[in-house]
Amino acid sequence: MGKNKTIFICRECGYESIKWVGKCPSCLSWNTMDEEVKSTSGPKGAFSYLNKISQPVSIKDIIFDEQNRVSSGISELDRVLGGGIVDGSLILIGGDPGIGKSTILLQTSNNLAKQGNVIYISGEESLQQIRLRGQRLGVTNENLYLLAETEVNTILEVVNKYNPRFLIVDSIQTIFNKDLPSAPGSVSQVRECTGMLMGIAKNTTTTIFIVGHVTKEGGIAGPRVLEHMVDTVLYFEGERHQSFRILRGVKNRFGSTNEIGVFEMTEKGLKEVLNPSELFLSQRQVEGAGSVVTASLEGTRPILIEVQGLVSPTNYGTPRRMTDGVDYNRVALLMAVLEKRAGLFLNSYDAYVNIAGGVRVNEPAADLAVALAIASSFKEKTIPRDWIVLGEVGLTGEVRSINRLEIRLKEAQKLGFTKALIPYGSTIPQISGLEVYPVKTVREGIDVVLGG
């Protein structure tokens, strides 16, 4: 029998230390070292349960099929996964509580059960609770089997006995290995249980979905190594009081990480949104200063979103700056450019920038739209509803070109926009019914749209 010893493991990155330290030497996070008891004999390993000796194989002898993908029955999920589910892959889905992780997996399970047996492992809900939710969602396929279990070795026995084509584990933080002394959800348990599940996926054709809880900062709870171990990491985004959800891929070994899927939460579960632009602009009805539309590119899909800006005189010595859906530091940079290069003196005004509908925009192509939304509110001049604004803004006030301009403009034209403000020097596509106005600087853009 091996002796047990006490170690400290960073909950953020999995770094191990024999003594407690306030700052993790690996990821430099503060107060993330948790005490755990570790057996010197150690676990047997992620692949040991297979009871076979691994042998090297020549790369020429490995048989593969590039088209070996299975449709989930949900086109938006297939889009994010890169065209479908790859056999034997390990997929991690994270998101805030109540955002829809279990809902979409239960709906997906019902579809996948038409192609083979599916086992849904629940560590948080009883079978009766899942059955009740499944009844509301219309989940009735007899090839879908439910199991309320949290011990990983028992799960492995069930998988070996029934050999399901798809396995769903909800959630990984509730699963534990009885051979480890640490508590469920700890770094050691999460890492070991994920490794054992990975052993199933990589040595069989079983595809595994696992649900991961998120921390207050929005990352998946547990060590970063959890994200490194899986093939695909998907995040559910959106506000709980909003009806729509965005499924974003942040890691994908079998496809692009730029695609998103858009869903609407209804009484009967998540419903696909095939035209997200129309959804995000559906409530843009009130004419007013500070509102402008831009086109964000998510993978191969252009999505039209509304950028809102509000500028008002400050009541404090230091003006407030608040953002929602766009990077705070980026907005601060754009406001400095507006003061220095466009002559808008904002140092005594509070400024608020919002992306309507709870969407997040990370690409610089929205810079010019953010700048014009702020300028519109500052000047109290309304931007006409038929304008779309695209372009990156540099520190000297220049408007820089962006990628995939043509498909962004085509999407705008389809939704009725007739005028577009774009960077000077861009290749101007010929799109019927759409007038294009190239500008060199942000000040020139303000003059064109707001009339100086």
Automatic annotation (TrEMBL):
Pfam families: ATPase, ChlI, Zn_ribbon_LapB. Keywords: ATP-binding, DNA damage, DNA repair, DNA-binding, Hydrolase, Metal-binding, Nucleotide-binding, Stress response, Zinc, Zinc-finger. Residues 66-214 form the RecA family profile domain. InterPro entries: AAA+_ATPase (IPR003593), DNA_repair_RadA (IPR004504), KaiC-like_dom (IPR014774), P-loop_NTPase (IPR027417), RecA_ATP-bd (IPR020588), Ribosomal_Su5_D2-typ_SF (IPR020568), Ribsml_uS5_D2-typ_fold_subgr (IPR014721), Rubredoxin_2 (IPR041166). One of its GO terms (cellular component) is cytosol. Residues 350-452 are annotated as: Lon-protease-like. GO terms for biological process: recombinational repair. It comes from the Bacteria. Coiled coil: none annotated. ATP binds at residues 95-102. A motif (RadA KNRFG motif) lies at residues 251-255. PANTHER family: DNA REPAIR PROTEIN RADA, DNA REPAIR PROTEIN RADA-LIKE PROTEIN. Plays a role in repairing double-strand DNA breaks, probably involving stabilizing or processing branched DNA or blocked replication forks. DNA-dependent ATPase involved in processing of recombination intermediates, plays a role in repairing DNA breaks. Stimulates the branch migration of RecA-mediated strand transfer reactions, allowing the 3' invading strand to extend heteroduplex DNA faster. Binds ssDNA in the presence of ADP but not other nucleotides, has ATPase activity that is stimulated by ssDNA and various branched DNA structures, but inhibited by SSB. Does not have RecA's homology-searching function. NCBIfam families: sms (TIGR00416). The middle region has homology to RecA with ATPase motifs including the RadA KNRFG motif, while the C-terminus is homologous to Lon protease. This is DNA repair protein RadA. The gene is radA.
